[in-house]
Amino acid sequence: MSKEQIVIKVDNLRKSYGAFEAVKGISFSVKKGELFAFLGTNGAGKSTTIDILCTLAKKNTGDIYIDGYKHGDIKGNNNIREKIGVVFQESVLDERLTVYENILNRGQYYNLSKEQIQDNYQFVSEYLKLDDIKDKKYGALSGGQRRRSDIARAIIHKPTILFLDEPTTGLDPQTRLFVWEAIKRLQEETNMTIFLTTHYMEEAAVADNVVVIKEGHIVAEGTPDQLKDKYAFDSLHLVFKNTFSSKQWFKERKISYTFKNSIYTLRLATTIDAYDILKKLENQIESFEVIKGSMDDVFINIIEEKEVIVL
Ligand SMILES: Nc1ncnc2c1ncn2[C@@H]1O[C@H](COP(=O)(O)OP(=O)(O)OP(=O)(O)O)[C@@H](O)[C@H]1O
Fold first, then answer.
1. Residue 243 sits in the same domain as residue 275
2. CATH code, 244
3. Ligand 1 centroid vs 163 CA: distance in angstroms?
4. For ligand 1, which residues put their CB under 6 angstroms from it?
């Protein structure tokens, strides 16, 4: 299937809790097979939006299409549930059952045949490496093992779209990497669309597309590179030898900088521009560091409403 096919289309979605409007008319679309990162500060409206898309909560107004099905009526919502898998922040597996039993039960919920469930189990077990935990009770698992089981359960019916609400929060770095690699493999090898919320910007940095919401409004969207161009910058940090009159040097050349804790910071259009400056100053420098603009900068600058002007 074409990468350009739209699998999620949201138009002017609104959701209120009583008098409080949590989602204030957002519109966006997600293409088939992409890793889509839905970002925002705590309370921005991410979980509310996911709950609505997954048919677990009602919207107030707005049009939503998921994998071609219209969201909102019973038939459309039932069709949508067949096409999606969801991993919530809080686990929904039965603590008293084994991993295998939990996943099998879920397969039965989708009316899959025994053979189909077995085939699909092999598929999810390979991606989430379930062999060593298959017969363990879910309640006895570590946080990382639970996450692997949660994801496996969510994809036992091989959905078109997998919704992941902060899938790696609370995991140690090694487990986080393991879970993350499984998610990326699912996307790349099976063309599953991944709809992700995360507070880890290094995960957002490898997304195909990013939407950032703040207080229920979309405040930025684009590819990570597009967002970096607009909201982040590369910089050069310089520490000079005591003998060098650095401020005078910059003033004469009309170069802007910030100065803090003996470090001069210069904004760069690209990291290569550091080379020219370093060559001119090579005998005066005590130390230097070239720093690439990151998704952390992007997120902070978007939330603080600072667009970056490269000097
Ligand atoms: N059931 C509810 N009743 C009333 N207000 C709610 C309810 N659920 C969420 N809210 C409010 O709606 C807003 C959006 O919440 P939501 O959980 O969607 O944010 P979020 O972006 O997912 O945050 P987090 O990153 O902390 O998970 C918040 O102000 C929250 O307090």
1. yes
2. 3.30.70.80
3. 17
4. 17, 20, 22, 40, 42-48
